TrEMBL record:
NCBIfam families: PRK09542.1. The keyword Disulfide bond does not apply. Belongs to the phosphohexose mutase family. It comes from Cellulomonas chengniuliangii. This is Phosphomannomutase/phosphoglucomutase.
Length: 499
């Protein structure tokens, strides 16, 4: 395998290096191809990943190894080849698994016990691509766990070139198909063989769900047939996303699925994002089931399984803008419930620290201890199918149990002066306490809760890290109260000098 030659980074004290901070962010790599992310950049990042993560993690006496997968974006194969070239130049043996969902790459990293790289830009438009890096066992690589060092070293390699390590033979590159093993592993975690027959519409959005759903839910990987009739929607892999964006968080991207569920008389609809690590659920009436409801449903299933095995107080993680129903229902079982900041790096850190059996986010990321503490939309979908197919009620009735409160959803406000807007809210709801006794915390933004006193409500106000935005989430036990709190807080946030 060829490598780019040039000076070693250590010989470059006076050199000016390219700024990769806009590409290599706090938790992953994401940018426009080829302006920001191209073969040269991918090769430099691969070499840096080798030096910072892969080689130091290699067991003593063994060759360092890494695994790489990619989604369906047209730019993927070239970037993967260059990244693998950078790894190999630094003495790392590389296994390519080809087309994969992000959770498929996590499975590869976890089952093989080696670091991994997934080439995907998730739900971003077609001109983007990116890389999600992980350590052995699918452990995340973020700003504080190696990504900052990867960024710095990649910048130097990009300027000075990637040299082979003189004392080590170049790495080898081979290919391996892990899709059957991935599908069998998920099937081993949730048994769907004895549920009642279900008709399931799956909207893959031309993303990797069209690759994994036939393998896991069907017979595409050679597994036995399940009592599921799958109605495929946009299963053709196409990184230009010709039908709709592969971002089910946006309501307009669910409309085709909602219509198809009603048209086909289906029991449930499942929507996956571009790299299929998130899953959204639609009931038989075409109505969305909130990710908080799914968090509660799956969390209760995982807690029940743990308790049946003699572990009475397992831990479930949820972020601070999921519904109050999650701590209410999960906590009532005797399980420990841990509230954390928004963001997968925080969830994964808490999952590992507490040995949590499950974690959920409002964005439809679901994390499982039995899946290397990583997120997988497909496993969450299987839990919902098992719960639905294990009883006779429709999904709308089942979901109603887990959606007792009224929520605003996340509302973004662009403001000129974020601190001033936040200060107005603090003055009204904390300093003056005109709405009655409240509890306040700043774990992530400002959370004000009136849940222990009637009327029950809480809100969270968080600033964007990259834009002049404030993000508001409100929940209340009564819809009229939710609307009043939502509108009152928004009026304070959006107040202008003219007002």
């Amino acid at each position: 395998m060829s490598s780019t030659t040039g000076q070693t980074p250590e010989s470059s004290a006076s050199h000016t290096f390219p700024d990769l901070s806009g590409l290599i962010k706090a938790y992953d790599v994401r940018g426009v191809v080829p302006q920001e992310l191209n073969a040269d950049v991918a090769r430099a990042i691969g070499a840096a990943f080798a030096d910072v993560v892969v080689v130091p993690e290699a067991p003593a006496g063994q060759r360092p190894r890494a695994v790489i997968g990619n989604d369906m974006r047209p730019s993927g194969p070239e970037l993967v080849a260059a990244f693998a070239d950078g790894l190999a130049a630094r003495g790392v043996d590389v296994t390519l698994i080809g087309l994969a969902s992000t959770d498929g790459l996590y499975f590869a990293s976890g089952s093989l016990g080696i670091p991994g790289a997934m080439f995907t830009a998730s739900h971003n438009p077609a001109q983007y691509n990116g890389i999600k890096l992980c350590r052995a066992g699918a452990r995340p690589v973020g700003q504080d766990s190696g990504l900052a060092q990867v960024r710095e070293l990649a910048s130097r390699y990009l300027a000075l070139g990637v040299e082979a390590v003189e004392s080590v033979a170049p790495g080898t590159i081979d290919e391996q198909d892990l899709l059957p093993e991935y599908a069998a592993f998920l099937r081993s975690l949730v048994d769907l063989s004895d549920i009642r027959p279900l008709k399931v519409v799956v909207d893959a959005g031309n993303g990797m769900g069209g690759f994994t759903a036939p393998a896991v839910l069907g017979t595409g990987a050679g597994l036995p047939e399940l009592p599921l009739e799958i109605v495929p929607l946009y299963f053709e892999l196409d990184g230009t996303f010709p039908n709709h964006e592969a971002n089910p968080l946006e309501p307009e991207n669910l409309r085709d699925l909602q219509a198809a569920v009603v048209e086909h008389g289906a029991d449930i609809g499942l929507a996956f994002d571009g790299d299929a690590d998130r899953c959204f659920v639609i009931d038989e009436n075409g109505d969305p089931v909130s990710p908080s409801a799914i968090t509660a449903l799956v969390g209760l299933r995982e807690v029940a399984r743990e308790q049946a095995a003699g572990r009475p107080a397992p831990t479930v993680i949820h972020n601070l803008i999921t519904s109050q129903v999650v701590p209410d229902l999960v906590g009532a079982t005797g399980a420990k419930v841990v509230r954390t900041r928004v963001g997968h790096s925080f969830i994964k850190a808490e999952m590992a620290q507490h040995d949590a059996v499950f974690g959920g986010e409002h964005s439809a990321h679901y994390y499982f201890r039995d899946f290397f503490f990583a997120d997988t939309g497909m496993l969450a979908a299987m839990h919902v199918l098992a719960a639905l197919g294990g009883q006779q009620h429709p999904l709308s009735a089942l979901a109603e149990i887990y959606q007792p409160y009224s929520a605003s959803g996340e509302i973004n406000s662009r403001v000129d002066d974020v601190p001033a807007a936040r200060a107005r809210v603090v003055q009204a709801y904390v300093t003056e306490q005109g709405a009655g006794p409240v509890t306040v915390d700043e774990l992530d933004g400002l959370t004000v809760s009136h849940w222990d006193t009637t009327p029950q409500w809480w809100f969270n106000l968080r600033a964007s890290n990259t834009e002049p935005l404030l993000r508001l989430n409100v929940e209340a036990a009564d819809e009229d109260i939710m609307i009043k709190v939502r509108d009152d807080v928004l009026a304070l946030v959006r107040l202008t000098e003219e007002d």
